[in-house]
Amino acid sequence: MTNNGRFFSIAITFCIMFLFWLLFSAWTVYIPQSYDMSQVFKGILVALIVAFLTHEIFLPCRGENILLKSRRFVAYSIWEMWQIYLATIDVTKRVIGMLPVDPRIIEFDTTLRSDLALTAFGNSITLTPGTITIDIEPERGRYMVHAIAKEPADSLTVDQIMQKKVAYVFMEE
């Protein structure tokens, strides 16, 4: 990778990591208190360290269309957060008895092949309440997932919306 490509990869990774730090850490630190620049500096430092260590994993040098994939990933992240919200409501209804709990383990194959796409899909499944990725066989693209009920399981095996969106992000459609 050229120096410009390496710098670009580190810069994009840093921006994304710092944004995640702001979303997940800063809100709990700053809402009740005034801004503390030492905390912001720590967030910048951690994002920089993570960017230097993981930029080749996050944005591989062999990858093409990094900007397009990054833009698609941001849109996918927003969609995934909405799915997490909806699944949280669904799980809450199941916990309080409004909907039935019918746990099951499902296995299904995917067309995803790159390590990053397989990992992103598995993490998305686990992040969504009501489903947990148990195992992934990367050479076959086979997933084993625990679902709290039939509906969350069907969303993975019948609708396959999440899989299609991940394939779109990583250009594996």
List keywords for this structure.
globular; 6 helices; mainly alpha; 173 residues
Give a brief rundown of this model.
By secondary structure, the chain is mostly helical.
Question: How would you describe the overall organization of this protein?
Answer:
A hairpin with a 4-residue loop joins β2 (131-137) and β3 (142-147). The protein folds into two domains: 3-62, no CATH class; 69-169, no CATH class. Helices cover 65% and strands 11% of the residues. A three-stranded antiparallel β-sheet has the order 1-3-2. It is mainly alpha-helical and 173 residues long. The chain contains six helices and three strands.
Question: What kind of oligomer do you see?
Answer: single chain
How many helices? The count is: 6
Largest sheet: 3 strands, antiparallel
Unreliably modeled segments: none
Query: Radius of gyration from the CA trace?
Result: 18 Å
Widest β-sheet, arrangement of strands: 1-3-2
The overall average pLDDT, rounded, is 86
Q: How many E strands? A: 3
- Order of SSEs: HHHEHEEHH
Helix content: 55-70%
Write the layout of secondary structure elements.
Blueprint: H1 3-30, H2 37-58, H3 66-95, E1 104-109, H4 115-127, E2 131-137, E3 142-147, H5 150-159, H6 161-169
Antiparallel strand pairs: 1-3, 2-3
Helix pairs in contact: 1-2, 3-6, 4-6
